[in-house]
Fold each of these.
Amino acid sequence: MTRDRISVLLIDNHPVVLDGLKAVLETFDHIEVVGTASLAQVGLEIARQRRPQVALMDINMPKLSGIDAIELFRRELPDTRIVMLSMHDSREYISSSIMHGAVGYILKDVSTDEVVCAIETVASGGTYFSSGVRDILMADEARMEANPLTPRERHILGLIVTGRSNREIAEELGITPATAETHRKNLKRKLGIATTAGLIRYALDHGIATRAV
Amino acid sequence: MTRDRISVLLIDNHPVVLDGLKAVLETFDHIEVVGTASLAQVGLEIARQRRPQVALMDINMPKLSGIDAIELFRRELPDTRIVMLSMHDSREYISSSIMHGAVGYILKDVSTDEVVCAIETVASGGTYFSSGVRDILMADEARMEANPLTPRERHILGLIVTGRSNREIAEELGITPATAETHRKNLKRKLGIATTAGLIRYALDHGIATRAV
DNA sequence: CGAGGACTACCCACAAGTGGGTAGACGGGC
DNA sequence: GCCCGTCTACCCACTTGTGGGTAGTCCTCG
């Protein structure tokens, strides 16, 4: 290692997570928590002064979302390596974080050992994604070739885009609402998208539906 | 009038509406119901043979939606004047119907007199929109200049596009979920859009949000 | 003929959105 | 000084979606 201790900045708007993480990390001699913040803006300010090697940042924060904050960090502090900390394992959050420049993404349900491992890995130049995240990333690439949407699913996706409820979709297709629900669930699972809004953006992006009303 | 009786085709997948409307219309000497159908495709088939002057069609039907059916009618039977019959007064349905070529749009809660009036009007070449619909159409044009979205609303619309729930929006903006809910309601009211899906399409259409994840 | 995918349908408990409202605080403009 | 728009917040009853499942029927492909 270039320095004996890895400097880490913690940003999380949940005091419990913030303090807990700080306490745990401080039991490791090779890690130094140089600051904590509950808001991204404050974290950025601290980072300007302390120039941490690693920033561990929550993805969901008031005022300034973690995703948006990644960009600000990258612009002002390109050497600080950003690891996102999230409770959500949705494909959108993960790929969005990576695209914005995060080099790590760990779920909040991982062990503290794994957090330490992530810090070490990204500090030495690597990338770290917790196991659940890796699965999602790999699945994301393999899934679409292995599991293309069925015609029925594309049809239903189109109806979802127009704002139809499960009941309305069911009426329109002559099936039960429960089945429409299943198709909706399968769509989300196949695409790794957690929200209906995400499904709509996906459909518009991939020409499965058009915005024409 | 060119013909003594106006030939009308009824298409609605609700038997009650279909039969009720037929019975009522047949009490008028100058109106002749030349056919009824509970599916758009069947209605189209009947229309091919009977060439009705007016087609009264439900907007929500299984298999083939009324909106899509308008196009088929326009293509094959350009002389048949289409009046949409709907329970929904959402801006999207109405403007979509008009754009596809309907010359009338009446809500199902209107009086039968108004239905007769609509048939007479479109048969003689005019357009007919029931009072509630007119309000919405006029409002639609006037509203956006009179009532532009506030910055706060645009911000919240952007968050809705990313699939945030009211609770998540509230956390992100430091307000209560109830307030986020109010903003969401106001957005729908201002834009005359009934569904969250519609809000998303609107936002993407108007550059208030981008699909970039 | 057996496997697997597609489509269908239902179960549960819980979370969230819907669509009506009402209402207070603040600030700018007439 | 008052009006109006904005932003905030809450009420209710109701519907809908969520995220786990399981499981049956068809049809096709090897």
Note: Residues 150-153, 175-176, 178-179, 181-183 of chain A lie near DNA strand C (CB under 10 Å from a C1').
Amino acid sequence: MLYSRPCEYAIRTVAYLARTGTERRVQAHEIAIAERIPAPFLAKILQQLARGNLVNSFKGPGGGFSLKRSAEEISLYEIFRVVDGVETLDRCAVGLAECNDFAPCPLHDTWKAVRVHLLRYLKTTTLKEMAEAVVRKKELVERMACQGRKKNRRSPP
Amino acid sequence: MLYSRPCEYAIRTVAYLARTGTERRVQAHEIAIAERIPAPFLAKILQQLARGNLVNSFKGPGGGFSLKRSAEEISLYEIFRVVDGVETLDRCAVGLAECNDFAPCPLHDTWKAVRVHLLRYLKTTTLKEMAEAVVRKKELVERMACQGRKKNRRSPP
DNA sequence: AGTATTTAGGAGAAAAAACTCCTTTATTCT
DNA sequence: AGAATAAAGGAGTTTTTTCTCCTAAATACT
């Protein structure tokens, strides 16, 4: 997989915050329940996001987390950078420590092209995409529920 | 990273066998030393490759492993399939268990495009590429060594 | 000031991945 | 047949990643 489990959780967390809006403070355990992520672990990840300046954090009663920027200003790449660190993308295709641009391994050039593509995906995919896609999915679910009822009328058991 | 550590080792192993030719039997510990891979672990990986019909295995004196096919007939995808299993590529972009083509998560379509690209890379990159690239690298190293000597003459300490 | 709340941070536990070690099996050679 | 060799297979150990638990710190409210 392209990025770690914690990074997956981070993406879903930021998406959750994006859907709730930038003003409201959301507590870690609320996100954990909604997204089925282990709460203490999510707290750690949220701290990383806060240190990386992707979210605001507020202690105490009424505290919680909120996004520092709007959804379309946050790319997958930024989350990935903060949680996994970008060095993981620099790894040689076959794990050779000495492989680099100056002394490339046999797969270096082809793998580099893949890497460029992956980086583009990460940098161009924003959390806006995720928020919008959820809206689209809801419409789809409602449409499918409607079709489901029609089909039941036509096909008695 | 796209595939596991064992899969990296497998690719390097198959490349090593490709360079030695399909006839000669190569022992596990020879490859382990040459590629700096833990020998007992490599033996396990080689067994997977044998079970997956990528290599021949021979027990006893004079035994070892050899490729079942020529380098250009073995893609990275085949090695990946045998060592990691292809289900790892089916994983949702953000780790949602219920995400599939019929109930896609918000990133499903964009991630799917990335996946297609990765699959193409894996399926079109063969071990022939690796074997040829090693030859090219040797020529480059010799050329650089030559330039290194010229430069030393020009730049006394 | 004291209490409650929620994040921040450190240490440890559990799970998964990587790796090691030992026995068994199959093959070759004498 | 016996010995040597090298793969095959199983179990165990180590390392890394994921996750849990506990304490400390900061904030809001009374």
Note: Chain A has one domain: 5-90+126-154.
Amino acid sequence: MAGTIVVVTTPQRVDADLGWALGRVTRAHLHTAQEVVAGLPGGPRGYQVLAAANDGEVSTQLAIARMLGVDRTVMTYLLDELEGAGLVERRPDPADRRARRIVLTAAGRERLCDLDRRLREAEERLLAPLEPAERDTLRELLRRLATGTGQDGASACQVAEEIAAIDGC
Amino acid sequence: MAGTIVVVTTPQRVDADLGWALGRVTRAHLHTAQEVVAGLPGGPRGYQVLAAANDGEVSTQLAIARMLGVDRTVMTYLLDELEGAGLVERRPDPADRRARRIVLTAAGRERLCDLDRRLREAEERLLAPLEPAERDTLRELLRRLATGTGQDGASACQVAEEIAAIDGC
DNA sequence: CAAGATAGTCTGTGAGGCAGAACATCTTGC
DNA sequence: GCAAGATGTTCTGCCTCACAGACTATCTTG
């Protein structure tokens, strides 16, 4: 390396860094969410478990864990708490006796509904600096990135791959 | 509450949740970033410290800590490692002898430059499902949210408030 | 039926962050 | 100029929390 001429272009400013912006926004969102879900077992993740279990597409512990990006061993005590609070039930999956289907109790659905509304309000406050149209754009772009679907619905997505790499490998 | 009729509207699907999308994208980004900065003391945050220190606007430990959202006590050992690797120096601030100015060494600037380029490539791969114009839009919207500036440059931003609430209170 | 994969649970352990105190220095009010 | 409080940095102790690994039960494949 000695004697090598290194062209040091001026690096980007910090606030041009996607990671920085993502981190900051995520952190702020997490912070407001924590206030909204105060008292809910598991905090923000407790809410996400409720939401994931409720929409029914996936409902076994492992499926929910993967979707939310939490370790499967964490789901155990997350669900212990939610079940203890009477918000969800673990039901044996009739098709696979190893698996448990997570279903919301009536109280769980009410709670989820209430949290949903309040979280949505909090999000709008968080997105306040953006024009209404821009908020929708941001939501849509993030959603497409997270679900791994391109504009045409194509699914060539690194986010999904990275997520997959994080859990099972 | 007994007897109250609760209208349970169908809650949003999980993938309509901003928090879910943010979390997933952030996690995926973090994961790719970790690979790129493998070997750098402090991991992704080490990079961010370098980037923040380099652009010079803020350079004391506390200012960097606040910008990055890390605890001030964490900055101490983060910088210990970076300084040990010869990437930054702690210089006494001539204007305030309590404070240390964090400046990059020549090696630090080279390293930052290299990381910058590789991270930018990784980000583009991550944003691949979006059209090029959409990627710029996403970057811009996130940047504006994170910096707390509206379209007109106005600064009425909850992200900044929440970030502020997290550290000093 | 045997062998391997998968769902869930439990236990131990280690990293990592936060609170709080200590110390040095700056600032403000008098 | 001095006392009192605020601010920047470091250090210590504690405590949470997530992950690895082992274990059981069940499914799947050959």
Note: Residues 14-126 of chain B form a domain with the Arc Repressor Mutant, subunit A fold (CATH 1.10.10.10).
